[in-house]
Amino acid sequence: MILYTFLKNTDLHAISAFDVLSHLMGYSSLISLKRYQKWDLGRADKMEVEPILSTTYLLLNLNKEFYTTTPPSIANDGSKKTFRLEAISPHVDAQAILKKIQNRFSNTVETLSHTVIWDLTVCSELAIADLQEDIMKKLVLTVSFRQGLLINPLLETATLTYIPS
Amino acid sequence: MNPLVGIIQFPGSNCEYETEKAARFYGLNTRILRWNESVETLSHVDAYILPGGFSYQDRVRAGALAAKLPLFDIIQASNEKGKPILGICNGCQILAETGLLNPVSNTPNLEVALGPNQTQDSLCGFICDWVYVKPMRPKENKWTCLFEESDCLPIPINHAEGRFVLSESAQKTYASHTHFVYCDAMGHVCPESNPNGSFANLAGLSNPFGNILGMMPHPERASFIKQIPTWLISPFSDMKRHFSQVNGPWEKLFLSLKASL
Q: Which secondary-structure segment (H or E) carries B73?
């Protein structure tokens, strides 16, 4: 089962990142930036996962977050293109959380992985491959003073894929 | 006129006033400058201190957003002129994100990052504690030229992301420049004295030209003897217990800068 978790309130990280990328770093073709988390719980089903979600804060806090089991839909049209950046965060220790779940819920979940997802929508006439390279270089990988923001390659690994409508 | 030390206040900085108090006590002419002051004001500064805190609430990553501010065009130009630049805690994280804290070359490429604290491969969260550090090759940096390699200095740390991660090329070059390492109370550098899993016990780093220093511990919080707890194993604690009228262990940081300006 895969869970996608979203903040109920405004995501200040995404708002600030969007502002920096589009204004301070001058990438004006970026028109939307959304951030959410993905938890892959392996073969566990909804019946097994429900008690974890409703009685603990291990995967999410239902007061502040909501979840879906399908990724958000994308509505690309014409020059509007969406890319999904999936990054392994150094701030979340999925194996430590898995141990806590297994201790408390008698091994209902066998595997657990966590990634942070950024959906970047850009308005551009560039070909998909060129655009993907451009985004990776200018917005994603922080390699120098004025280049990249979302991922620090010394700490994180990430993949960027084009999401068709 | 005394050279001016600019202490940069970002949205979310919280150590600028105590940094200024320590710097002024040791005879520096300081001014707290907001991150969005005019280019002229920010340029007419002889040394910069980026203080600790939580700039932009640590959004995206600690220091990541502040590192993209236009201010860093000015600081980068000042770096090229050899002006001293010190980053403390969040300031060190910002310097790492700008690429200015680069032990390899004078180009602003990311060679150093500050990762989440770890002990034995698991995350250990925020650490607020007193530790000991010792300077290595202190004579080669403008901020540390009055320190000795034999110094073992108590200092507080307050961070969640203070684990130095170095690129392959930085791992080869950092040791030939000034750096601080975590040690025990006797000055021995060992894995047990590393509080956060930092590469090679690193607590602070210099650039190859000796004008930039980034350090995760807070020297401004150990600049006066009254700030040192009496329970530490340190000559400074002994002196405090005996009511000796001496200055704090990090006096030399500010006096080094004064001597360099």
A: helix B71-80
Instruction: Write the residue in A25, A91, A144 that is nearest to B99 by C-beta.
Output: A144
Name chain A contacts of B108, Cβ cutoff 8 Å. 144-145
| Residue B89 among the catalytic residues | yes
CA distance B131 to B112: 22
Answer yes or no: do A13 and B60 touch at CB < 8 A. Answer: yes
Q: Which residues, in sequence order, are CB contacts of B134 under 8 Å at separation 6+? A: B149, B150, B151, B152, B153, B180, B181, B183, B187, B189
Count Cβ atoms within 10 A of the Cβ of residue B183 and give its class: 0-12 exposed, 13-18 middle, 19 or more buried.
Answer: buried
| Joined tokens for residue B25 | 């006590």
**Active site annotation includes B218:** yes
B29-34 and B4-9: which strand pairing? parallel
- The Cα–Cα gap between B205 and B214 comes to 5
Q: Do B68 and A24 touch (CB under 8 A)?
A: yes
Enumerate residues 6+ apart whose C-beta is below 8 A from A164: A74, A76
Q: State in Å, rounded, how far the first CA of chain B is from the last one.
A: 12
Query: Which amino acid does the sequence have at B145?
Result: C
Query: What is the ipTM for the molecules in this complex?
Result: 0.93
- pTM confidence score: 0.95
What is the distance between the alpha carbons of residues A19 and A13, in angstroms, rounded to a whole number? 10
d(CA B256, CA B26): 10
Cα B127 vs. chain centroid, distance in angstroms? 16
User: Strands B85-88, B47-50: parallel, antiparallel or unpaired by DSSP?
Assistant: parallel
Identify whether B220 is a catalytic site residue.
yes
Per-residue confidence of chain B (261 residues) as pLDDT tens digits? 689 999 999 999 999 999 999 999 999 999 999 999 999 999 999 999 999 999 999 999 999 999 999 999 999 999 999 999 999 999 999 999 999 999 998 888 899 999 999 988 789 999 999 999 999 999 999 999 999 999 999 999 999 999 999 999 999 999 999 999 999 999 999 999 999 999 999 999 999 999 999 999 999 999 999 999 999 999 999 988 888 888 999 999 999 999 999
Cα of A78 to nearest chain B Cα, Å: 30
Between chain A and chain B, the number of residue pairs with CB atoms below 8 A apart is 66
Kindly state whether B72 is in contact with chain A, defined as any CB-CB distance less than 8 angstroms: yes
